[in-house]
Amino acid sequence: MLKYIIRRLLQGVGVLFVVTLLTFLALKVIPADPATLILGIDATPESVAQLREAMGLNRPLLVQYWEWMTSVLQGDLGTSYYYGSAVSDLIRSRLPLTLTIALLTTFFSLIFGTFLGTFAALYRRRGLDYLIRLFTQLSGAVPSFWLGMLALTYLAARLQWFSVHPDIDLANRFWGSLYQLLLPTMVLTLTQMGPTIRQTRSAMYDALEADYMMSARMKGLSERRRIIRYALRSAMMAPLTLSSLQFAHLIGGTTVVETVFSLPGLGRLLLVSVEQRDLMLLQGLILFITTMVIVISVVTDILYQYINGNTEEGV
């Protein structure tokens, strides 16, 4: 197991290096001059040239990449051209909100998706299975922004169960803020739950037909115990892997929902960095999100190996 962990960590570092290099080079191709963005369009060519020289933008690309990565390893992601603040501080201030939404969405998607997927497998090709599959198709077809607008219109504006423009302060008003985040969380859960249901249904059906289920039956275990102890435990590997990838995606994939609900998270910060061509901020966000995806992927693979090994030993 230790060798496997070390190998996966080395692979992750390699992938991170390639992604950061390609991202850095790709962003340099974009026709956006950081010096002009900082000084404004009315700046003289001389002042722009002086600032470019001071920022090291005239140096070779590989030299710029090396200097940027050296600063990153020291915890410095640079300074945002648009906000004028450290990129790391901007990410740190927006992360709690996005992380809370991502955690809640992943949790609810895993719980409800596993529950519905399990029942769909147990009642395969019967009425309940068809209803759950229809719900799965509908949840994947509905755009999150449209569902979010409906939720805001009826649940917030008309019924006033939630605030239309929520004032989120997780540090000082945690439970009140958490309640206001339930609405965007519900919207994301409905759109993210479909793949979890399908994965659980398929994995659960395969687990019920596996040889170790026959061995458990021969041991005299009850059907309920066989399903919970062996089938569900084995089938959970598929939705667990999917949920971890969904969580990693949500770290940088909540842009639409955060925009609809006016939430100051990483998603809106990413949108602003693109709109304002803030390359330093965009680089920092891509690096942070990529690192999160790699870390979550490694942890998921380790959990997968652990659960799979324990299931085989248990049977």
UniProtKB/TrEMBL annotation:
Domain of life assignment: Bacteria
Gene Ontology CC: plasma membrane
Protein location: Cell membrane
The keyword Nucleus appears for this protein: no
PROSITE patterns for the chain: ABC_TM1
The UniProt record lists the keyword Cell membrane: yes
UniProt keyword terms in alphabetical order: Cell membrane, Membrane, Transmembrane, Transmembrane helix, Transport
Record-linked InterPro entries: BPD_transp_1_N, MetI-like, MetI-like_sf
Pfam families given in the database record: BPD_transp_1, BPD_transp_1_N
Record-stated family: Belongs to the binding-protein-dependent transport system permease family.
Protein name (Swiss-Prot/TrEMBL): Peptide ABC transporter
Taxonomic source organism: Falseniella ignava
